[in-house]
Amino acid sequence: MSHADWPLAIRPAAKFPTLGKHKEAIRRANDALNNPDFYTGLGYDLTAVMQAGIDALKNRFSRSWEAVEGDAAEERQHGEGQESA
Predict the structure, then answer these.
(1) What pLDDT, on the 0 to 100 scale, is given for residue 23?
(2) Total domain count, the chain
(3) From first to last of its 85 residues, what are the pLDDT tens digits of the chain?
(4) At what angle do helices 62-78 and 46-60 cross, to 10 degrees?
(5) Contact of 30 with 37, CB cutoff 8 Å
């Protein structure tokens, strides 16, 4: 998630069949994205639900997250969109 577009990451991840112990948090975040008024009406703090989903994504896919984060930092250092000769 080099651009931190978490809703874009949560939506497809919620459909993955093997999320392990992170399944509930990721799927709840997706449901809250799709039905924010319902979750607010139930008394959920949408910010907390989303943060729990983001944390679950980071934990479940930590290795790939670190790689993407490192790649994005390297691109910023060298200038995005510039091709090397």
Answers:
(1) 95
(2) 1
(3) 556 789 999 999 999 998 899 999 999 999 999 999 999 999 999 999 999 999 999 998 876 555 555 555 665 676 644 444 4
(4) 90
(5) no
Q: Please answer whether residues 49 and 39 qualify as being in contact, where contact means their C-beta atoms are separated by less than 8 angstroms.
A: yes
* Dihedral sign from CA coordinates of 62, 64, 65, 71: positive
Q: For residue 85, tell me if it sits in a domain.
A: no
The residue range of the domain holding 18 is: 6-76
Cα separations in angstroms, 82 against 2, 3, 68, 73: 17, 18, 18, 14
Task: Select from 33, 32, 31, 23 the least CA-distant residue to 57.
Answer: 23
What's the CA gap between 66 and 64, in Å, rounded? 5
